[in-house]
Every structure is written in structure tokens, then in C-alpha cells.
């Protein structure tokens, strides 16, 4: 996904090596269980549904619980996240699976996926005058990147509904917030959005054409990536981050936390509580839920991503082995520390 990075992330790109990790300046508190907090610079692509466990870890204090001083920067694009990971400027970041795989295949600084957040779920929203897929012929569809991110899902969905790539024009229109602005302004005619950001638009008369899950129900999407060298040198910090995020994911998937989870999503995405609740019902209170239990990305969903990347020429067939891009050792240790079995 293409776009700019935040000011803090840009500054971070100029720092060398393990700039993302700093030992906390304060000494550990008295007591046998006290730990010295570590500061970890953590890149997030943008604010959307996929980052719900991150919001929960922040809001419910799970990062603090596991001794992580969480330093959040916004990268604006999965490709930017991978670039920052490769340089070591940001040691841990969210990015789509295909972006991390592409970076790793090109030798991008030894980046690797260490956990998965969720399967892909995007809704195709169009301007009010567009009532059907056929109406998209000759129209402009805004995407975050021409090949990565939600774009493979868009292509498959439109192909299944009878549209060839030459029937419409794809333009890079930025991250989710930028695409929402663009479709409202009329500079693009349609775009893929994660719930609940589609709901305010449909309430204004925009058309919901369909969803990616209609054609790709199990497609690995948002992942947690890291720089291999940094992870090896700072395994304790990475394990703590994963412990906090897996606990946050478990918390999200516990239905008794529904009301609080809805409040957090509404606050962080600036949507109504009702819109956040509808999103919860459609992504969490379903079987299977959209989010991976214990952040364990399934090999089948990752394999589907690799198949598409081979098809569009991003990687070679000889490179399409999930084990090449996935290292679950840190996740396993985080779960072991929490007393959880995968």
C-alpha cells in the first residue's frame, strides 16, 4: 500500500540499527515480579478494524502489564512498514502479509512475519449513482497500492463479478482515511474499505457492492513483521510485545468483553457505538472469527496469499513456501509465558 509516513517514522528512518528499542530509564520497582520496562517503537499502517487488538492492548493496559513502553508511529502504508523494518529504523510493525513476503523475497533486510492479526475482510463501496458491478465499467477505483494490500482482493472480487482489469481504472488514492475522503469528494468512484468505515458512507446513500469474503473467505491479511537481526538481539522485547497482543486478542474474542471492545473501536476509529457494534457482530461474534486465535496465522491462509503472488509475478513458484516467511518461535515463547497452548 502506497503513501507517506508520519513525521516520527520519517525521523526514525534516519536512526541506525536498533533505534526502536530503549531500556526504560526508571529502575524496576521493588518486588520479585518487577521488570524493567522496554521502549519499543511500533509501526502501524493506519487506523482501521485490523488493528483492534493493538487498540485494546493500549487501552486496557496489556503493554504496561508485560513491561512494554509502547511507542506508536503511523507508517501510512504496508510498503513503508517493510522499508522501515528492513532499515531497522522501526523494529516491529504491522503490514499486510503480501508486503512482508515481497520485502523478504527481495532480500529486504531479513524481514519476517512473526504473527498474524486477521483474515482479510474488505467491503467494496461505490458512489451513489453506481448501483451494480456493471456500472463500474470505465470508472476509477481507488486503491492503496497497485498490487499489494487490498488490491488482490479487489481484482478477484471484480473478476468473479464479470469485470476484467481493462474494464476499470485503478489509481493509488492513499490509505483508508484518504480513500474515504477521495470517494466523498468524487475523485474516485469506488474503493475497498474495512468495516465499520463503510457504514457512514452507506448511510449517506453510497452503494455497498460486495465483500472480499464472498470470494476469498480465508486470505491472510494484517500481520506483525519484524527485522530478523533486531529480533535475535532483542528477543525479550519482541516476546513481551507478542504476549501483550495475544492477551489483547484473547480479550477481544471473549464475548463478555463485547461492550468494552465496542467502545474502544468506536473511540479509536471515530465512529458511532452502533457502527462499532455492527462490526463486532460481523467480525468477532461469528465462527470462525475474523481475528486469529493466539495470533496464529494459518498456513492455508498464508498459502493463498503466496498463490496470488506467484500468479501476478511478484514471486517465483520456487519462493512460495510459507516457512520461508514465517517464524513463530517468538509467538510460541510469548504464549508459553502466558501459560497458553497453541
Explain what the structure shows.
It is a single chain. By secondary structure, the protein is an alpha/beta fold. The protein contains 14 helices and eleven strands. The protein has two domains: 231 residues, Periplasmic binding protein-like II (D-Maltodextrin-Binding Protein, domain 2); 92 residues, Periplasmic binding protein-like II (D-Maltodextrin-Binding Protein, domain 2, 3-Layer(aba) Sandwich), CATH 3.40.190. Helix 5 packs across helix 13, helix 10 crosses helix 14 and helix 11 crosses helix 12. The N terminus is likely disordered.
What CATH architecture of the largest domain do you see? 3-Layer(aba) Sandwich
Tell me the overall shape: globular
Helix content: 25-40%
CATH class type of the largest domain? Alpha Beta
How are helices and strands ordered from N to C?
HEEHHEHEHEEEHEHEHEEHHHHHH
| Count of the separate structural domains | 2
How many strands?
11
Class derived from helix and strand content:
alpha/beta
Poorly predicted sequence stretches spanning 5 or more consecutive residues: 1-32
According to CATH, the homologous superfamily of the largest domain is Periplasmic binding protein-like II
Helix count? 14
The overall pLDDT average reads 89
Percent in strands? 15-25%
- Sketch the major β-sheet: 6 strands, mixed
In the CATH scheme, what's the topology name of the largest domain? D-Maltodextrin-Binding Protein, domain 2
Measured distance between first and last alpha carbons:
31 Å
Q: Return Rg in Å.
A: 20 Å
Features:
342 residues, alpha/beta, D-Maltodextrin-Binding Protein, domain 2, six-stranded mixed sheet, five-stranded mixed sheet, 14 helices, 11 strands, disordered N terminus
